[in-house]
Amino acid sequence: MADINYLWAPPAPSSLPVRGTSARFPVNRLFFVGRNYQAHAREMGTSVDKASMRPVYFTKFAAMLAESGTTAPYPPETQDYHHEMELIVALGEDGFRVSTQQAAGMIYGYACGLDMTRRDLQAGAKAKGNPWDVAKNVEAGAVASEIVPADGRVLTHGEISLKVNGQLRQNGDLADMIWTIPEIIADLSTYYHLKAGDLIYTGTPEGVGPVQPGDHLDGWIEGVGALSFDIGPAE
C-alpha cells in the first residue's frame, strides 16, 4: 500500500503498559459507567434501582488518557475539580449483543483508573438540562495504571481506595458495584460493537471530592495494583 500523504503527522495511538511484558495495550475507546455504587449515587443526590434501570454511560476521547505517574495541570474553566477512583476493564476481544457468559471471555485485563471531573461544570449543565461533555472530557482526565492480565479472573470483590496527600478519601469494595463486570459489558454491547482495546471505567465508590494544584493522588485496587497522579499548577 502506498504511503498516505498526511498534511501533518497524525498523533501516536494511545496505549498502556502491560504487566509482565514489554508489549503495550493499544487503546481504542474509553467508556465510563455512571452511578454504579449506591453510596456514590446518594452523595450525588440520586439513587439507583437496578430492577427498573439500566447502566448510564458516557465517553471520553482516547487522547484524554494519562498514564499513572503523570503530572497534569489543574484544568481551565473550573473551580471544583474532583477525583473518582475506578476499576478499569480492558477488553481483548470484539463483541456485539453478547451474553454475560460471553462477556466474561472478552476481558483481557484490569487496571486502576481515575475519572477526573470538572464538578461545577457538570452540576451547572445538569441543572440546565445540557450535555456535560466538557465536565468529563478533560485533557489528562482519564488516568490509568498498567494493564494486569485477567488470566480468566472475573473480579467480584476487592478493596478500592484513594488517598490525596496521604489522607484517605475513598474506600469501598468492588462487591458494592450495582452492575457486575459481565453485566456492564453485555449491556454496553447492545449499544456498540465493542472492540479489543476498549477500556471500561466501571464507576466510583463514595467519597469523591476536590483536588488542588500541588496535590498528590495514590489509588489502589486489591488484586489489580496501584496508580499515582499529580495535579500541576492551574492553566
From TrEMBL:
<keyword id="KW-0479">Metal-binding</keyword>
<feature type="domain" description="Fumarylacetoacetase-like C-terminal">
    <location>
        <begin position="31"/>
        <end position="228"/>
    </location>
</feature>
<dbReference type="Pfam" id="PF01557">
    <property type="entry name" value="FAA_hydrolase"/>
</dbReference>
<protein>
    <submittedName>
        <fullName>Fumarylacetoacetate hydrolase family protein</fullName>
    </submittedName>
</protein>
<dbReference type="InterPro" id="IPR036663">
    <property type="entry name" value="Fumarylacetoacetase_C_sf"/>
</dbReference>
<dbReference type="GO" id="GO:0016787">
    <property type="term" value="F:hydrolase activity"/>
</dbReference>
<keyword id="KW-0378">Hydrolase</keyword>
<dbReference type="InterPro" id="IPR011234">
    <property type="entry name" value="Fumarylacetoacetase-like_C"/>
</dbReference>
